[in-house]
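Marked as duplicate of an earlier ticket. Keeping the data here for the record.
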Amino acid sequence: MNYDQILENARQNMGGRCLVCKDCNGLACRGKLPGPGGKGSGSSFMRNYQKLQELKINMDLVYHKSPINTQTELFGKTFEYPFFAAPISAVKLHYFDYYDDEGYSKAVVNGCKASGVIGFTGDGEHKECYTMGISAVKSAGGWGIPTIKPWAVEDVIQKIKTAEEAGAPAVAMDIDAAGLPVMAKDKNIGAKSVEDLRRIAESTRLPFILKGVMTAEGAEKALAAGIYGIVVSNHGGRVLDHTPATVEVLPDIVKAVGGRMKILIDGGIRSGIDVFKALALGADGVLIGRPYAIAAYGGGEEAVAMYTESIGAELRQTMIMTGCQSLSDIDSSVLWNK
């Protein structure tokens, strides 16, 4: 199986919900909700992608050569690469019925595990979305990070217990999912106060990650709640039109809380070069969503592992070409300033 075959399989298996475009930039699927598109005009999805493309890299090969190390440590685990599969759920609704959530989650979790990274699993309007993801994490020996929608606090805490029982190394909540059309109608879904978040974080021994932070002020509130880490995310542009790109707000967030909590980022990341750029802006790690879905639909866990290794190879090659021999060498100096 090669990657062209994976893409062709994905086009068939996604039933036209995702067009598997050559450039996954949000243009062809704007406003396609349910589905993989951005909300409204699609500008948030498209801006995530475009602003990453505008960042340019300084090349430097005058240095003492030594082995390249792409490993990172997060959640008390060591991973081969600093990027992970983002949570995607309700796949029958958004990506066609080739998979149910358990089948999709197993493909992602197992494929990620085979290549030394980890997959996040999702939650949804129906409880099976979460329990199927938990099942995939448990069957992989706890190698996955369950992600919970912003339900009422007691419901979130109860769901975290099942993540602990599954052996997960961490748990997340995508607070930004409150803006999804299918979720926004539920009165039990919504914003959380600092006190709410503190109760959730203190309810578990697991590192708690808050996904959906887009301002320095929001990051500082998450820090005040005692949260392990955040994901700078606008939910792939699927919850609010006309937001800035995640890479545009990342530097201010890093300035506010960097070094005091872990900072991950998603949104428009499509290549190892994109991963490198996000790290250069101060992120500790990266989540990738739609391309992992395409890989899973195109060839299951084998294709997920293949995609992971491809992105890892691109990251390693970019490090070679910039004189960065470990992830700690990647900083803002490798980005070209006009």
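See parent ticket for discussion. Strands lie at 72-74, 77-79, 83-85, 120-121, 145-148, 171-174, 208-213, 229-232, 262-265, 285-288.
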